[in-house]
Amino acid sequence: KFDDIRVTTHIQDPASQRLTWNKPPRSVLVIKKIRDASLLEPFKELCIFLTEVKNMVVYVEQKVLEDPAISGDENFGVITKKFCTFREDLDDISNRVDFIICLGGDGTLLYASSLFQESVPPVMAFHLGSLGFLTPLKFDTYQSQVTQIIEGNTAIVLRSRLKVRVFKENWDKKARVDENGIILTNGDMDSCRKLLQYQVLNEVVVDRGPSSYLSNVDLFLDGHLITTVQGDGVIVSTPTGSTAYAVAAGASMIHPNVPAIMITPICPHSLSFRPIVVPAGVELKIMLSRDARNTAWVSFDGRKRQEICHGDSITITTSCFPVPSICFRDPVNDWFESLAQCLHWNVRKKQNYLEEEF
């Protein structure tokens, strides 16, 4: 009988998520924002500390070392000779790096995420950019914070990502297939489809692009058509992305520990179309409506922008490869601190004290 069934659940305290090492980390990837002169000295100082003091193997992107301000520094050249270098989309470093240090703004964390299509090493993000919502650590105490990470036992937040697959129905057979593409055939090259796959930390944005017409796309949930989006487009975001483009479009802000996917219309031509939150794990599918007047465009964390035509489709679900981000204090306090400092959440002038009347 149902009365005899007792259903219980265990809710994990976000503060209980801790980073521990099975063995001491030996390699670190340093991500530096390109063409930012203000980051040169912090970058050099950090790399000298990692190599000379901590004896770490440091990975740096090749284009970072091509900066004349770095390549022309003879004193720092002794350090750069010890670096391991890599090139985006060409070299696989997924199994070589123990943790990541980001120097810059929120974009550096998004870029670091894009480098790993499966498991992502823990990320330390130092606030050296303009906004810093995702970068809680301050660089002036970097030595003690890096030491603490190497020793382990620090708080982390697991930022979920979206697994996105784009099926291109009518691709050009003569065009070069990029490294992320997989060619699917049914035995005949004329019936080929191109499959592109992405791991997205913030959001997938489908919009009308340069067209003056409304975007007109169908939205499916686990295979069932739930609505047609008419407007400038739609944003499908993670909880981490809920405080990015989605919040500017009128969405709620969701803590990154909440397992969810948010769907936010962009300027919908309907007064009743409000942002909705669906459970993590469902599969969303976006296609051009049959009677759409124009194509649509899609981007992934603001990158890899491409056109979506009739017959193409985009499937989105929660990835099983989150981004473990190092906290300054703990996931809850860090998040509210970012809301207050970066977005000035609920900031207003206080009312004057009302004196008691006699």
From TrEMBL:
InterPro entries: ATP-NAD_kinase_N, ATP-NAD_kinase_PpnK-typ_C, NAD/diacylglycerol_kinase_sf, NADK. Its EC number is 2.7.1.23. GO terms for molecular function: NAD+ kinase activity. It comes from the Eukaryota. GO terms for biological process: NAD+ metabolic process; NADP+ biosynthetic process. SUPFAM superfamilies: NAD kinase/diacylglycerol kinase-like. Keywords: Kinase, NAD, NADP, Transferase. PANTHER family: NAD KINASE, NAD(+) KINASE. Belongs to the NAD kinase family. This is NAD(+) kinase.
